[in-house]
Amino acid sequence: MTTHWTPEQLLEPGIGVILDTETTDLDGRIIEISIIDAATGTVLMNQLINPQGAPIYAEARTVHHISPDDLATAPTFTQVWPRLEDV
Question: Angle CA(43)–CA(49)–CA(55) in degrees, nearest 5?
């Protein structure tokens, strides 16, 4: 069953979210994921993600300014997935 929301309903706290990602390249791996409540602006998740050796291309770095050093101790996407599902 698919739920259809009206625009007004999506602006109720806890209903609609804004999801943003940063990646290693245009078709690369996710290295940061952020989720914000669309109604309140509350940050629900903001997590760096280790790309497990995938290179971060210079063009992407000029956009998001995330370096391999920033990700060295970050969890992998698999480790982040349970929290992402909860959010």
Answer: 135
Query: Cα–Cα distance between 58 and 9 in angstroms, integer?
Result: 40
Instruction: Give the Cα separation of 66 and 72 in Å (integer).
Output: 11
Contact 64, 70 (CB under 8 A): no
Tokens encoding 85: 């599902």
Number of Cβ within a 10 Å radius of residue 38? 17
Q: What is the mean pLDDT of residues 57-81?
A: 94
* The residue type at 53: G
Q: Count of CB atoms within 10 A of residue 29's CB? A: 18
Residue 1 pLDDT exceeds 70:
no
The encoded tokens of residue 86 equal 């909860």
33, 80 in Cβ contact below 8 A? yes
Q: pTM value? A: 0.85
